[in-house]
Give the backbone structure.
Amino acid sequence: MKKENIHRALETGVKILSQKGYHNLGLREFLENAEIPSGSFYYYFKSKEDFAAKVLEYYGDKAATYYTTRLLESDIPYAKRLETVFNEELERLSATECKEGCMLGSLTSEIAGQNEVIQKVADINYRKWQNIFERFFKEGQEKGVFSKDFKPSEMAVFFLTSRQGVMTRMKASGKNESYRLFKSFMMKLVKS
């Protein structure tokens, strides 16, 4: 499988796993959407589990790059950086009519408790994201923008775990009201 085919396979995997989850992932549907031959699939992915783990790793890296760019490498004020992340995510979620949340959260809920490989990849991704948010909140505190009532590590954990719960609620209702409330609450909570 050529490099562009692997990339297409991972991108298609993100799309399908985000929409259907692990247990509803059909290999035939995936191959048709990714436009790759089935023999190539098993050359690069040992199994459905291996495929899901690689897609999850890819998704986590892609999100980490996004968060790093938006939160740590931006020149705009700290509060505006966080608001930008909220607004862009809300736009993405609304575009899917609140049917897709965070693939990492969805797969973690679906199978991480039963599958050590997926659990390990999910935990690595959460830790990676947590480190980015912790650094962001620490820098914001040092600049006097964010409240010092909580440790940056606590703020990062609260943000990420609350975000997952909000996305689950949003998928259940089909509306983005809970995410909007979460955004408002977080923006008030972190202000100094």
Summary: The radius of gyration is 18 Å.
